[in-house]
Amino acid sequence: MEERILSNVKANLKFYSRNGIIWIVILIMLMQVGARIFFYSYAQGMKFEILRSFLGGLGGFFSVIVAALGMLTVSYHLRNRCFKMVFSRPCSPDRWLFSLFLSVAIVSASLILAALLSLICLFIAWKIPFQAGCVYILLHSMCRWILLSFCLLFLSVFLNPALSVFLVAVLTETNLYRLTIMLGFAVNRASSSAARMFLKTLWHAARALYMSVPLSLYPLETGRIASNWITSGQDWMRLGIVFLYTFCASCLLFFLSSSILGRKRLT
What we know:
- The protein is mainly alpha-helical.
- It has one domain (2-157, 232-263).
- Helices cover 82% and strands 0% of the residues.
- It contains 11 helices and no strands.
- Helix 2 (20-40) runs antiparallel to helix 3 and helix 8 packs antiparallel against helix 9.
- It is globular and about 70 Å long.
- The protein starts with a helix and ends with a helix.
């Protein structure tokens, strides 16, 4: 079992390294981050802002890459009808999915390590005291990247990849929260009982979607740390809760994806 999972992980990593779409995205994002650092470098006394901009650019760049990994792998196998061969014994759908989840986590951790080493080099080159807040931001971002990737992976099991991206982009926590507030006001102002019942049904549906969407935990605290890179003991305890939530949500998405993929007609 362990050998099969390791072989699948190696195959996934090789697939990522040979995927042209991923390399095109990497090239575009690196050009954007490099241009941002180049223009900021001419500003005097803004080295901390350069580091923050560098970290923000890398965060956006890495989130796109990690989010696409699971979805690209599933869509490739579905499009080329490879699952019947992949799921031949002794490889089962849950083992294959577990190796895919593990591959995404490995790539995320590798990108975090690369970003941290780059920041450390800039801290040393510019003789700036190291700020532990950048580590917090990187680890918190890694949890968001992994959850986003696993959500897209889950949706791509039974939906078109383009539709999966659209749903994730539209059905965000913020948009669903605003929708529930608007529907709540509409229910209170409905003029007839039929309209009130219809709007209340929509409100319950929107609230159910809002509760099922993975949460971005502690957004205010994370925003504060992102602005000054100063952390306390309570912040690291909150980060532990974020890791626990990410693990639980990932397990749920794994079991849902495995259940759907096991019942899906793959011939």
